[in-house]
Write a structure and sequence with these properties.
Layout (H helix, E strand, L loop, with lengths): L13 E8 L10 E6 L4 H12 L6 E6 L7 E2 L16 E7 H6 L4
Parallel strand pairs: 1-5
Antiparallel strand pairs: 1-2, 3-4, 3-5
Length: 107
């Protein structure tokens, strides 16, 4: 588009998202704030979380919060993008390990 009136540039569409490890194996690692494109697929977010925190993609439970509301939404559709779930600047993702559920002592 020669007029410069095209869609937003990549820099404009980057969202500041805080990744918070809650997995037992990664709890000692600090939260990490990343600039992520709104078009990033959940599948790719899982790969990033695996690299940062060592929780395999198949064992991740990703829970999204917009930063203001205490309600957490589980990110279950790997082929949807961040924009679909309503990600914005200041959003947070909690990374849990489904294997932690199996290790919890029975009461």
């Amino acid at each position: 588009d020669a007029s410069g009136q095209g869609g937003p540039t990549l820099a404009q569409s980057l969202l500041s998202v805080t990744l918070e490890p809650f997995a037992a194996s990664a709890i000692i690692k600090p939260p990490s704030t990343k600039k992520l494109p709104a078009s990033m697929l959940i599948r790719d977010l899982r790969v990033l979380c695996a690299k940062l925190y060592g929780v395999p993609t198949t064992r991740q439970r990703l829970l999204f919060s917009d930063g203001d509301m205490p309600v957490l939404t589980e990110l279950t559709d790997d082929m949807k993008d961040l924009a679909y779930f309503g990600f914005a600047d200041g959003s947070k993702v909690r990374i849990e390990d489904t294997h932690d559920d199996k290790r919890a002592p029975a009461n």
